[in-house]
Amino acid sequence: MLKSRKTQVVIIGGGPSGLMLCHMLNHRGIDATVLERKSKSYVLQRIRAGVLEAGTVQLLKDEGLGARMDSEGHSHDALHIAWQGFDPFAIDTNLHTGKKMVAYGQTQITEDLYNALERQGADLVMEAEDVEVHEPDSESPFVTYVSDGQTHKLECDYIAGCDGFHGASRRAIPDSILKTYERVYPFGWLGIMSETPPLKDITYAHHPERGFALASQRSQSLSRYYIQCPVTDDLDSWSDERFWDEIKARFPPELAAQIVSGPSIEKSIAPLRSFVAEPMRYGRLFLAGDAAHIVPPTGAKGLNLAFSDVFYLCRALTEQISNNNQRYLDEYSQTALRRVWTNVRISWWLTGLLHIFPDDTGFDKKIRENEFFHLRKSERAQAALAEQVVGVPFDY
Ligand code: APR
Ligand code: PHB
């Protein structure tokens, strides 16, 4: 038998976007139900980037989610670049913008969100299977899903598609309406986590023959490192020893000497892609986060972009539902996409600057080196980059 009930907003996906939207809507007295395909433990074991733009930090604080970030995160006020053959240098993002970024893991944010939602008694359905969007372009859309072997129907006023790149929501928008833009990069990131003390600063490295490397961190005793590698590489061919040798070879010797190696506790290869789907709205269905766009991890913009979408979408739904003002809902896709493209561009630019490409010509390499040289020399170039790394304001 079909079980049917009603809510104001159905949120498909319980990743950072869906959880944050549910938290924000509940706070404003709007009913929302989150349908997440996986279990909570599965969602919480995903490892993702952890650098928060100033606007994301402020949003978390404003929404009552800042306590653990304030005590466990640490301020991150510079973009450190170690280019083989040059002295490492840092762009002081705080100096150029007056704004502060924070290094705090996405896993921790997701945990904080689950804890807050559970405390509030939010309506979360975990392990919801076969989630399907119905009649999104009508006045009475609904979503069906299977839970505990039973099919459920959720009638609603609005649907938020927060189900990531492989989710069901974007597919509910007809091909004749959806336009997609994509760049797939010819390499991936091999990432490892190790219980070793990290380098003092999150540092991006470039080696003209070996390629990109990144030293990042999750805490004083937990390090996250990445190197670019062919996306077709077999993980088994990357022993810990080979990884440490390679990453040290990509950093200038004085920094390589400070990298503390140890056994990896996680190792994976992720592809790099830029992707945008437009528009982010179809009738009463609104896309947010990775469901609508993907950026390569360089610059750690993914989560920040997901949260700016959620900020715009929460404002739009609240204005419509509580104040009968439809202006923000009508402008949602356009407003969100402006900021999306800003971050798509900066993560594409940083990826191009810091990586090597299989079809690079000598000319490409010279241009890349000169781009770096200009950045190193020019205060104005640094200020322009700092503004985008710290994150353009939500009202950009
Ligand atoms: N039904 C229900 N849930 C689904 C479905 C589906 N058909 N498909 C996917 N999901 C769930 C996934 O299991 C996941 O938990 O939707 C969630 C989407 O989460 P994310 O992929 O993390 O996307 P988002 O919440 O938008 O977060 C964006 O995460 O990937 C990073 O770089 C990205 O940092 C950014 C952030
Ligand atoms: C990370 O810590 O995972 C990270 C940090 C900075 C980036 C990308 C990823 O640019």
Which short descriptors sum up this protein?
396 residues, alpha/beta, FAD/NAD(P)-binding domain, 2 domains, eight-stranded mixed beta sheet, six-stranded mixed beta sheet, binds adenosine-5-diphosphoribose
Descriptive overview:
The chain has two domains: 3-74 and 102-182 and 273-354, FAD/NAD(P)-binding domain (3-Layer(bba) Sandwich); 185-272 and 359-390, 2-Layer Sandwich (D-Amino Acid Oxidase, Chain A, domain 2). Helix content is 37%, strand content 29%. The chain is built from twelve helices and 21 strands. It has helices at residues 16-27, 40-44, 54-62, 67-72, 93-97, 106-120, 240-250, 253-256, 302-323, 327-354, 362-377, 379-390, and strands spanning 3-6, 9-12, 32-35, 51-52, 74-76, 78-83, 89-92, 101-103, 123-125, 129-134, 142-147, 150-155, 158-161, 179-194, 203-207, 211-219, 222-229, 264-278, 281-282, 285-287, 293-294. An eight-stranded mixed β-sheet has the order 7-6-15-16-17-14-18-21. It has a six-stranded mixed β-sheet with strand order 9-3-2-13-20-19, covered by helices on one side. Strand 6 and strand 7 form a beta hairpin. The radius of gyration is 22 Å and the shape is globular. The N and C termini lie far apart (49 Å). The mean pLDDT is 96. Bound molecules: adenosine-5-diphosphoribose (APR) and P-hydroxybenzoic acid.
